[in-house]
Amino acid sequence: MAEFKNPTQQGGGDNKSLLVMMLVMVAVFFGLQMYKSKHNPQTVSPNQPTQSAAPTPGASPAAPDASVATPAQAATATPAIVAAAEATTTVENELYRITFTNRGAHVVSWQLKKYKDTDRKLPLDLVHDQAARQFGYPLSLYTYDAATTTALNQALYVPSATGTLASPSSLTFSYSGNGLTVTKTFTFDETYVLHADIAVTRNGAPVRALLSWPGGFGDEEDARSYAAAQLDTSTNGKADHVAFKKVIGGATLNGPFDWAGVSDLYFAAVFLPDQPDTATLATLHDQLDVAKAKHNNGLGQGNAPKGPLVVPILGAAIGDTSGHTLTRVYVGPKAVAVLKAIHASGSSVTLEPLLDFGFFGPIGKILFLALQFIQVHVASNWGWSIVILTLIINAILLPLRIKTMKSGLKMQRIQPQMDAIKNKYKGLKATDPKRNEMNAEIMQLQKDNGVNMFGGCIPTLIQMPLLFAFLYMLPKVVELRQAHWLWLPDLSSADPYHILPILMVVSQFLVQFYTPSPGVDPQQQKMMAFMMPAFSGYITWNYASGLALYWAIGNLFGIATQAVMNQTSLGREMREIAAKRARRKAGTGSGRAQTIQGRR
């Protein structure tokens, strides 16, 4: 953001518009923080009890399925199909390496080859091992009977292949015993999407067994990433994102679903049912103590707190009312290009809405696409791409800055006449009707001289949405995850040395210092000169360093352009008028101005 333009720099002794703009900016920031807290609340407190909220609209409490029999029922004469020992099968393509175990026929490792773990040495494994050991592994089965669920996920299935398979390929797990007959078939191609065919019967009757991602992702490593967990669904083309605090574990949501699943900041596990109209979704919400987890950025062994540290673990399971589940499964990054290419079954609906930039989403998306274009075609580094995009934005806004200065100069030229009008009505109470006459005279004077009293607000009004769009976009795009720039190891995380926030504070002060602000009350000018840098420093201190980079570069651009404009006839005249008014206010014909004026 190049500058917070003071709207009262044009308006004599009337300082109300400055306070209004400041209040608007603060209100928007904290309003967006409230909006964010509703969608991504803070991590669960260790002392907070488990939620027992009422079911969400459209959700029905989990209940035992009528078709599910207990394990105590007599088994039929179906021949037993049970593996003699545990074995693993690995399926891989250029994007992933998935390892299955025949113990439960589920996934124990889901590595994404294009993304690195916290140490940046190994491919990122999306299986949250600690959560999986406690709540279940990816592609395990979920039923409305705990004993049946345990039996299905502990059985030794017979795999159609062991060892390593290269995509495209197919892998089938079969099991029969204790009256249960299960077939789980997975088909793989060259994308992040696989297809699942799940059929479970007991004594010949279908069992409503749902394919699940029980919860968590392997990249979740700090409070921010856990708190970003959400349930994502799309019904008839309308996407919905539900924060973890509003997700009730064990609830069943009835379709139709274009797609449904869970995600965190950067990755998602989403089901795309073959039959959207008959699909049902079970929501899973658990809590996990990660105080002693290995990799969680300050929450781990070396810095582990004395007490428990409880975080939310979200999961989801998809099934079909017929008991036979056919669905595609997407497990991968929330990258725009990737999500846009994946369509729901028989629909034009894509997974693109999974990437949600919040209130200023449309602006954020445009900014990211522009940033991505620069990264691909101009600079190969995301940090330099942010720098270039910032310079382009500020260059586009430069004519508005010049127009603002011209408008301010016009205002200062008529300031003596405005002061005369105010003196004519001096002493009136705030409720006196004659004050309306004063305001009418001032407005007519401004109109006659082509002065727009809100002209100084235009650059700020344009730049504020851009700033807040960056605020919510930068920490969510997976492309910036672990993207480095000079000393910054990760543009989506805070500057570890706080160099950029400090530079941001200094540059913000210089913007206020160099920008001519004649007519502003000295105390108010001093307040703005220090309060605005402090406010912007507070925002960027522990936020994505990419935001601080954008803001600081914008400030430096503003300082440079303002220094040049101060040397023009326009700038010199503004300073002369400001100096005269300052001397007049001081009651002397000469002397030093008391306000902070624009410098050469």
Automatic annotation (TrEMBL):
* Taxonomic lineage: Bacteria, Pseudomonadati, Acidobacteriota, Terriglobia, Terriglobales
What this chain does, per the entry, is described as: Required for the insertion and/or proper folding and/or complex formation of integral membrane proteins into the membrane. Involved in integration of membrane proteins that insert both dependently and independently of the Sec translocase complex, as well as at least some lipoproteins. Aids folding of multispanning membrane proteins.
Compositional bias segments (type: Low complexity): 48-70
Q: Which InterPro entries match?
A: Membr_insert_YidC, Membr_insert_YidC_N, YidC/ALB3/OXA1/COX18, YidC/Oxa/ALB_C, YidC_ALB_C, YidC_periplasmic_sf
Q: How does it sit in the membrane?
A: Multi-pass membrane protein
Q: Which GO terms describe its biological process?
A: protein insertion into membrane; protein transport
Any Pfam family from its record, for instance, is YidC_periplas
Q: One GO cellular component term, please give it.
A: plasma membrane
What is the predominant subcellular site recorded for this chain? Answer: membrane
Q: Which keywords does this chain's UniProt record carry?
A: Cell membrane, Chaperone, Membrane, Protein transport, Transmembrane, Transmembrane helix, Transport
Where is it localised? Cell inner membrane; Cell membrane
Provide the assembly information.
Interacts with the Sec translocase complex via SecD. Specifically interacts with transmembrane segments of nascent integral membrane proteins during membrane integration.
Task: Write the protein's name.
Answer: Membrane protein insertase YidC
